[in-house]
Amino acid sequence: MIGLGKTSVAKILGDYFDSEVFYEDVNDNEILPLFYTASDKELESKRYPFLLQLDFLQRRFKDIKRATTDRYSILDRSIYEDWYFAKVNMDLGKISDIEFTIYEKLLKNMMEELDELPKKAPDLMIYLQGSFETVMARIEERGRDFEQDESLTDYYYALWQGYDDWVMNCYDASEVLVVDMDTTDVVNRLEDRELFLTQVDKKMTEINDTDIGKF
């Protein structure tokens, strides 16, 4: 979910495994601030939500192709959950049915391309789970101006309320490790960080031992 600490956790994992981290780059994304700040009329006429999802999709696809070269590449956002964001925006009327159909066709083609790669899917998905109150507090804490408008609260809630269901009932590409971000602070509490890394190590060992990992 937005704001729960993916970038920080990805960096910790990258340092621990001595691996490259592929971050979701929002600094050079000219569409993202427009998506958050444009009026409803501008969103409708400029189709920013659809354009943003296409832009994110191509960025994820590029990162995945690069990430397959290393054993322990870390991505702080997955191509799988992109579909979830697109679906929520369609449900909210921000993306049209036709646009969503086009998006799904493109995503399907990309996933078919990934099937040709030696490593077709993640070994492990780490899901940072938290209450809506924690999500909003973290978004406010990191202070991105374009994320702060109170009018975005309903959008954040729409994303948040279905995330658990998507992870638990729709995502099936890999094993999942759930981290409770309401009670865990892997950035500022050393004991939490050590416990988290121990859990990741244990999960990866189980995956490798049972040959669940995709290689």
Molecular structure report:
- The two termini are 27 Å apart.
- It is globular, with a radius of gyration of 17 Å.
- The chain has a single domain, classed as Rossmann fold (3-Layer(aba) Sandwich), CATH 3.40.50.
- With 215 residues, the protein is mainly α.
- The chain has a two-stranded parallel sheet.
- The longest helix is centred in the first third of the chain and has 20 residues.
- 22% of the residues are buried.
- Helix 5 runs antiparallel to helix 6.
- The model has no long low-confidence stretch (mean pLDDT 88).
Summarize the topology.
Elements lengths: L5 H12 L3 E2 L8 H7 L2 H7 L1 H20 L6 E2 L3 H13 L5 H18 L9 E6 L2 H11 L10 H18 L4 E6 L9 H20 L6
Parallel strand pairs: 1-2, 3-4
Helix pairs in contact: 2-4, 4-5, 4-6, 5-6, 5-8
